Amino acid sequence: MKVHQADIIISAVAPKQYPETQLPEIALAGRSNVGKSSFINTLIDRKNLARTSGKPGKTQTLNFYLIENALHFVDVPGYGYAKVSKTERAKWGKMIETYLTTREQLRAVVSLVDVRHKPSQEDIQMYQFLKYYDIPVIVVATKADKIPRGKWNKHESEIKKALDFDHNDQFILFSSVTKKGKDEAWKAIEDAIDYQA
Prior knowledge:
This protein has 197 residues and is of the alpha/beta class. It contains 5 helices and 7 strands; from the N terminus they run ββαββαβαβαβα. The chain starts with 5 loop residues before the first strand and ends with a helix.
């Protein structure tokens, strides 16, 4: 998809604030510093529509981005960020869970993991949660430019093993620096929303 138009339209914390459209939605989930904003910005060819911040854990709402009037990206709060109180984290968890399990427009979740590290407990829980609720999932391993190409396969198989990866799901190695995986990511998203160019 060639993106000419992308805008953040609403930050929501409850279903009554979700956009009232039938447009398909793709949610983006991952740890606080996994590179979610960079992933969004790379996909839409913008420098900073999604704010990348030095302070992880900054997204505290569901941020809906309207892309080409064809779909919404929904950026969900990053998990696993320690500086947030337990009650705050529980509140986010509830908000994310409500969205993921009740939103009919949701077509798939892009689950972002850092290719350099084994998936965290939260990464694994998120993947299992999506599988449990039968929500289509696209696993994107970010920061591929940070490890030598020769080690990509090794890291990929470690991640898949830790997640107990379902081979019907898609796994994409991605780098916002080199744009590796950008086309595959768009293809997976377009397939998920039945996009006809």
